[in-house]
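Section 3.1: Structural characterization of target chains.
Under the original work plan, the team committed to producing a structural model for every single-chain target entering the pipeline before any wet-lab resources were allocated. The record below documents one such target. The sequence was received from the expression subgroup and is listed exactly as submitted; it comprises 272 residues.
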Amino acid sequence: MNDQSPIPADKERRLRQIIREAAEQEDSGRVIIGFSGGVDSSLLLWETVQALGPADVTAVTATSPTSAPQEEHCAREFARALGVEHLVIPSGELDDPAFTNNSNNRCYVCKRNRYGMLKDLAKRSGGAVIFDGSQSDDDPADRPGMRAVTELHIMTPLAEAGIGKQDVRDLLQSAGYHELSEKSAQPCLATRIPSGTPITLEALEIIRRGELFLKECGLVFVRLRHHYPMARIVTDSAGISLVLGRHELRQRISKGLKLLGYEYVTLDLEEY
């Protein structure tokens, strides 16, 4: 008995079959994809276009102060290159106290609101099946938002086809998207704020500007944890070595983050 997982090519064929069968269940034959611009949803969008063609596919990107601006730009460029309809819709979660109070179910509230918008869009457009980019390695225990996907009956073709994170990257490589295949995850800026601390537009802007500044300082991978009035810099081993090895860089970082309003600037010695 062979216990090995199917090779990506076999999984890809299964994925396209799932996509075609899902579209055939709708009279319109249309598919709406929740498209963040990350590696998972990008592969799902590309594979859906290969299976159905671009005319029957709509990519929807939710825009919000919780998102990094460059992610929206990348999503626009990718969708444009594929020739699909691409809608960028304000998600409005900062108007929802259930989100801004930053409880443990914040991600669930956000995901349910966003996919609720897509369900409404599907109804207004005459029907469509909705896809989410979750893949088989995503653990519901670590991703509360997946509960909303299940409750709203949103399909997850990557997970259903048994495609995990490495498969996603391998398939993007095979499709010629080498740079995209190596892209790191870009969780929303609200994840930098400790649970229980209210999420505000001001805090999100400080985090956005702070992370941009830290990248300008040479930190390729970085998260700015917002323990206001303390900033906690989380980076990888290369980033830690860079900061610890250069006194003038530490001074520059400290000064720059204090100009944003922090009183204390710390470096987390446990690498990301």
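The radius of gyration is 20 Å.
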